[in-house]
Amino acid sequence: MSSKEIEQQPIRRLRSVVSYVQRGGRMTVGQERAWQRSWPSLGREISELPAGELDIAGWFGRGAPVQLEIGSGMGETTAALAAAEPEVNYLAVEVYPPGLAQLLLRAESLGVTNLRLLRGDAVVLLTEHLAPGSLAGVRVFFPDPWPKKRHHKRRLIQPEFVALLASRIAPGGRLHLATDWADYAEQMLDVCTAEPTLVNEYPDGWAPRPDWRPVTKFEARARAEGRQSRDLIFRRSQGASA
């Protein structure tokens, strides 16, 4: 399937809350070349996955802890984090083809080999293709804030979705969220605190901003506009059953 066909392919919408926002845009020449080189081996469409559990170890060619990132955007953070954790099988989920192509370019430049890409709805991936307790951790950095109050119901971090995430994380694994919108940060804190299988690693609320998370241009812009980024790190409780 060509990148043009990928861009035109509809994404299944099974729920009122999904893990993406449809965006347009075409690939640059460099992105197109990276897509042609690497997508056939490193990328998959969630809508085209075989029924049942995704064979992650077979795809990576090894068994290793699995880190899932939802919403990799243009890949600036994702490529750097995957490069810093070569012992981890890193899965990135995104809907935007140019973003995935840019991530492939970044991964190539860093020599990253422990990264695989999935295009589509992470809710479908989690529900239909990932087993309970199969993930070492999940990261959701700067999801769409839907800033207008009437749109808050469209936000990704809702009780049902967090319960689903928690069920796929192994006991002791971590859920790491970040946002630069204050009211969304409060919502994230409330939702995750209410999930009985999760424990806040920083009981006072916010986690210190980790030095290992790169500052993207969007976070830098938020700082310039006076918005402070907030991190939340919750751990799947050891007593929780998968």
UniProtKB/TrEMBL annotation:
It catalyses: guanosine(46) in tRNA + S-adenosyl-L-methionine = N(7)-methylguanosine(46) in tRNA + S-adenosyl-L-homocysteine. Substrate binds at residues 148, 180, 216-219. SUPFAM superfamilies: S-adenosyl-L-methionine-dependent methyltransferases (SSF53335). GO terms for molecular function: tRNA (guanine(46)-N7)-methyltransferase activity. Keywords: Methyltransferase, S-adenosyl-L-methionine, Transferase, tRNA processing. One of its GO terms (cellular component) is tRNA methyltransferase complex. Its EC number is 2.1.1.33. Signal peptide: none annotated. Catalyzes the formation of N(7)-methylguanine at position 46 (m7G46) in tRNA. This is tRNA (guanine-N(7)-)-methyltransferase. It comes from Tamaricihabitans halophyticus.
